[in-house]
Amino acid sequence: MKNYSTLKNKSTITSISIGGFDGMHKAHQELFKNLDTTGAILVIDGGYATLTPKSIRQEYTPLPVFYYPLQEIKHLNAEEFVAYLMKDFPKLNKIVVGYDFCFGTNRKYSIKDLKKLFKHEVKVVDEVSINNISVHSRIIRDYLKQGDIKTSNLLLGKSYKIRGTHIKGQGLGSKSFVPTINLKVDEYLLPNEGVYITKTTVNLKEYPSVSFLGHRVSTDNTYAVETHILASYTPENVEKIDISFMDKIRNNEKFDTFEDLKTQILLDIKQSKLFFDTHETNSY
Question: pTM for this structure?
Fold first, then answer.
């Protein structure tokens, strides 16, 4: 997807949605629905985004995404903030925010202040809940930390995805058992340690896979993110790899022997294949 924020001039923008937007989840999408064809997303960037880091945020929307570093605007009072917006977006006539939006110094200004100072439309989107769960980035993070992929994906409205750099692993799998691709992942919140049913994207091609995140407690105890592709796959010279999480199989656990570990890995692979046979056709 093109980086629309570099292609679209701010002077053409007539509506914006303001927020942190980490995750670009279901509640965020409800805000974006209220933007017009010349709308844009304005991210207040606090540097804490771990669900959808800044480097990939644009991939989740066709709308242009602009960023205000929090450090540059957090000192502004309400009047200064609105004036800052109007200077940056001279044709702005609509602002879309969530029900709990606050802004300015110490976040002490509310939607009431925004409506008073902005002389055009302010659209406030009510709280979004799914299955009686409020959709918030922090709540999604909590579910991921618990390894609850199904609930995380439900609130996100998509499969949770991480991106990493291909690195050399232990070499045990390729030498004696199951080959894996090892990743170094820096920007993302990782689900809790365990084995997951996943999809792995290599060079824009998506494969069914089973992935492990955690300390290798049965071997050298180092932390690893590694994925085994279930389909027929020829190793490629690739740098960036995506892993999308579908469901969790089990927690990380220690095995007394390498044979016990191999037996469990075979069971993990079998369960993953069954998942894809059940949910998709021609998965591998």
Answer: 0.90
Domain with CATH 3.40.50.620 in the chain: 4-133
Residue with tokens 């890995």: 265
Tens digit of pLDDT at every position of the chain (284 positions):
444 444 578 999 999 999 999 999 999 999 999 999 999 999 999 988 899 999 899 999 999 999 999 999 999 999 999 999 999 999 999 999 999 999 988 889 999 999 999 999 999 999 999 999 999 999 999 999 999 999 999 999 999 999 999 998 665 545 557 889 999 999 999 999 999 999 999 988 999 999 999 998 888 889 999 999 998 777 677 778 999 999 999 999 998 888 999 999 999 999 999 999 998 644 44
* Among 182, 272, 174, 203, residue whose Cα is nearest residue 231: 272
Query: Which fold would CATH assign to domain 4-133?
Result: Rossmann fold (3.40.50)
Q: Are residues 269 and 231 in contact, defined by beta-carbon separation less than 8 angstroms?
A: no
Q: Tokens 């609850």: give the residue.
A: 148
| 8 Å CB contact between 45 and 18 | no
Nearest Cα neighbor of 142 from 51, 203, 55, 14 is 51
Classified as helix, coil or strand, 223 is strand
CATH architecture of the domain covering 159-279: Beta Barrel (2.40)
